[in-house]
């Protein structure tokens, strides 16, 4: 009985010091990130740049919350307060989930804005039968590289003068008009990325 008690005490002691050290490092990182956020926010105010107040408030809440959780974890480990450690574990789990969700939403927002921006650039090239030779040359290169034709309605965007860069070499993925041209529009290839488009053609 005494031997098992000694082992339990030894295990608690061996875990206590690494836990305190890890939380001390985490506390320092949280403080450093909080300081950077304050400096960044101050610079934004001085330069007059507009940033959503919700985003700034969320950053402060997350960083201050993580800092307080680290303090709570160190206090609970040093004083042996079980309720502190329970709050620490629950808080860190909630903070981790919040950061993951926030990052995913931010990535989705950036991706959607990028798609809209790319679509606007493509629409600015229309009509393809217009006098802008630079746009036509650029699209010829895109069609040869991505193996597609046209932008919005495929080969129809070129009217009666379908260029040689639209010539299709993949049976089953072509359309006869009467020449054989690529079925996929280039806007789909660009927005869905080159690899995905090429995989679609090989299926």
From TrEMBL:
Q: What is its main location?
A: membrane
Q: Which InterPro entries match?
A: Tetraspanin/Peripherin (IPR018499), Tetraspanin_EC2_sf (IPR008952)
Annotated membrane-spanning segments are 20-41, 53-78, 85-105
- Does the record's keyword annotation contain Iron? no
Coiled-coil intervals in this record? none
A GO CC term assigned to this protein in UniProt: membrane
Protein keywords:
Membrane, Transmembrane, Transmembrane helix
Q: Where does the record say this protein resides?
A: Membrane
Q: State the annotated membrane topology for this chain.
A: Multi-pass membrane protein
Q: What is this protein called?
A: Tetraspanin-8-like
Organism this protein belongs to? Cyprinodon variegatus (Sheepshead minnow)
